[in-house]
Amino acid sequence: TDNQRVILQITDVNDEPPYFINRPLPMQAVVKLNAAPNTPVFTLQARDPDKDHDIHYFLVRDRTGGRFEVDEKSGVVRTRGSEMFQLDMEYVLYVKAEDQNGRIDDKHFQSTPEERLSIVGGKRPPQFYLPKYEKTIPENAAKDADIISVKAKSFADREIRYTLKAKGQGAGTFNIGPTSGIVKLAKELNFEDVRQPHIYQLVVTATEDSGGFSTAVDLTIKVTDVNDNPPKFDLPDYQAHNIDEDIPIGSSILRVKARDEDSGTNAEITYSVSDDHFRVDNKGIIYNRKTLDADDNNAYYEFMVTATDRGEPAKEGTATIRIYTKNKNDEEPNFSQQVYTPNVDENAGPNTLVTTVVASDKDGDNVEFGFVGEARKSGQFVIEKMTGVIRLHNGPISLDRDKYELNVTAVDDGNCCPGGQHLRHTSTAVVVVFITDVNDNKPVFKDCASYHAKVEESAPNGSPVITVHATDEDKGVNGQVRYSIVQQPNQKGTKFTVDPETGDVTTNKVFDREGEDGKFVSVTVKATDNGDPSLEGVCSFTVEITDINDNPPLFDRQKYIENVKQDTNVGTNILRVSASDEDADNNGAIIYNLTSAANPGDLEYFEVQPESGWIILKKPLDRESYRLTAVAQDRGFPPLSRTVDVQIDVVDRANNPPVWTQSIYGPIYIKENLPVGAGVISVKASSGIKDNPVVFYRIIRGSTAQTNKHDTFYLQQRPDNGDTWADIKVNHPLDYESIKEYNLTVRVE
User: Fold this and answer.
1) Partners of residue 435 on adjacent β-strands
2) Rg of the Cα trace of the chain?
3) CB atoms within 10 A of CB 653
4) How far apart are alpha carbons 32 and 84 in whole angstroms?
5) Confidence of residue 626 (pLDDT cuts 50, 70, 90)
6) Which of 435, 479, 699, 741 makes a 20 to 30 Å CA pair with 405?
């Protein structure tokens, strides 16, 4: 929808007649006896609400013999002729005003009614602006307050003085300003005072100064009642005695009476009461609107009755009502509650207190308690007749149900009133005894031994692992279980979270099987019940971190260099390339192959065993050097791979390499707290050159931390009786939890 503002321009239609605005009325004027022709004596004034009016003034009837004329446009009435005007003679003209743009038909225009203009020769008395004056005032009008203003016009242009006189009662109640014409209140009024009239008939006289003429006008002032008196009751309090409490609803009990000194609606009274057990009619008669009860309020009712007048604002008066009632045995015992819900522990013994039922009788009777049928015992429960105390009986107790329901009775003895014993009253209540569970069972993970969870490494935080479940044989809150993760000692945060309500275990981190998390992670879940004090049970199980192919193979050296004799036989193992993969199964299984992008012909001389990594000579050597690239590729999906450069240098047939005293050293076991600089092992090789025993050692830096990528170990040469040893020593602190094994390669030349 859409809204558009529309402006309507209303054009005026000439449909309103003109009207005279001359005041006072009727129109009066004077003319000097020797007035010259064309002397103005009066000006007619008319208005027309139409925009396009064209007002003209006309003399309709002339009763003066042509002594006056009216200017059609200005409305000025002028004299005609030179003859003297006669003293005190009245000259009467009838005039009107026409709107000559407001045509009614071909011959008529909109016009004022004819008005009479009275012109007197010489002098005439003053003229009041109104033919009579009336005013209504409230009785609480303030003394000296302005009541009304009267005004008269002097045809001789003299000052006028006003006087005021009462026709009957009320002299001196009002006064008038001699020159202002303002009538003021001279005395305080009281509508309820019979000595003061409600209507004042006054006469105001206007007299011209210097012995001029005077004229009088009637002034009527009416005084109205103000609601300044509240209703008053004849008595300050009313009483009714010995009213039977079982009287029928609607019975009249007593009558009240209030009076109001005001008049009219200010004196009309309605009644109301403050207690909804009763009502009152407009005559002041009070009735009961509910059944009375002598057992309440000390056997009497006390309330207020209010009389309200219909003034504006209304006023009210009050009186106290006391109604005294007679008691009868008409009330049954009343239990303090209809249902009692005590709790008893499941292991409670004989004579244990269960609860106390309480009942009272408004009639004042004594009350006796029992079970239904006036029995004192019900199952394992007994009740005391006079006190209402309920206990477990003095015998074997077996509370094997969740609750027990007991129906108890209260019977009055009728001693409140004469003859009350002949009509005894009984009431009943229900006692529901809830057997409270004792928190003596802790939560148990019945399937804890069968929990075998797996989660894939690199799975996002919040991945589901397993749902654990614990049961608690207790009842209610004692059997309600909440789950939590037990944090391992010296562990920052928890690696798993558990939903406290459902037992759903989820990851709280992204696991790395090859990192510090390892292949298996232990988790302990605790189940706690809501008892007080609470009990708890725990379940520990192992979560297997399953592998994904996220680690490529890593060679144990950054480059392989090997010297080979020129006459080495075909089929000889030249050197072995070795790579490791931290992944598991096929993700960590490695196969090898060779490439040679720079010198493809070098591949004709060598081959590599795919499983072992041994490079084997397959063709006699005929050059000084060969450049190969060894490739290690795992069997993951997709597979990952790494390469390493292999340099094979050909040496003279007579060249003899150094010879190790041992081909393999180890395994060697050391403590993780071995200090930096401590020796690990000493190795030795003898020179292959006759008469030149000098050899040189170095540790080959591998591609992984386990193959000394970070120089965890260093080598120090040591001469000893013509031999040269290589001492392997610790270069950086060791940490068993980070790396458990190192593979070191030592090269000797």
Assistant:
1) 344
2) 64
3) 10
4) 9
5) very high
6) 479
